Amino acid sequence: AVVDGDSQKEQGVMEEQAREALERMRERSQDLARFLTSTKGSSFLGDDGPQIDADPKGSKRYEISTCPANGVAFIHVYKAAGSTGSSLVRKACPGPWHLFSHAGCGERSAVCHTRAQDRNWTANVNTTFSIVRDPIDRFQSGVFELARRHDTWLAPLLDVANSTGRAVADVVVDELIRMRDHRAGAYPNAHLMPQTYFLHDSAEPLPTLKYVAKVGPHFDDDLLILGLELFGRGPPQSHLREASGAEGQEYGKKFLYIHDEVVPQETRIKLFHYYEMDYAWIGGFH
Description:
By secondary structure, the protein is of the alpha/beta class. It has ten helices and ten strands. A six-stranded mixed beta sheet has the order 5-4-2-3-6-10. Strands 1-7 form a two-stranded parallel ribbon. A two-stranded antiparallel ribbon has the order 8-9. Helix 1 packs antiparallel against helix 10 and helix 4 packs across helix 5. The chain is globular. The termini are far apart.
């Protein structure tokens, strides 16, 4: 009887933790909606949305995975555990999963939809989720990703940082600010674009966006709980470990110094202002 009582108590604690996690993710989505509503009609988000220079993917929304059988969609925010979220849809969907991708689907086992069909992603979707990340952590990961890809916009900035001894982050954010001041809404690559742009439609909240998880100490547990809520199952723990180690020693080893660089406080302040729209609802600046 003691064991049964202990089991019931443990079950109650787990259920309460799950409720708190889901509420936390719902609240983050609501914070975004409130932010978008509060800035409606202002120039904060720009008139035409982001303009991506030299980015073949073009629009503000690039990869959306959907599971029509469950009415669930996942919006992939670049460099914010997007592969993990997509994997949850792919592995947990009880029927065919669909991928709306401006970059093409490659060899992935999805029903593929091209750029011309991207507006159709909302068909049969009643619940959308996404994942965000601390903006400065994501910025560093995005710069690292561009370096790993030998991006031609980034290469001369790395040369400047190496020749002057300045932090890579400082050189890059100064150039981003210069671009923004020259042409509002201009970004060299979607990996450096504010996360807010992935998650709204012409500055309007997405009505189906109900859960926004955040990379951090509770991320694995939150995604497991979200998987159980939406699909009745979570992502395999092996995949979570894989995803969290994706930027490990062999992944762009030559450029890991960018990913691991200590960002000076004065640079952090510049990044805070640059990603102000993200910090307005994601929070976490320090």
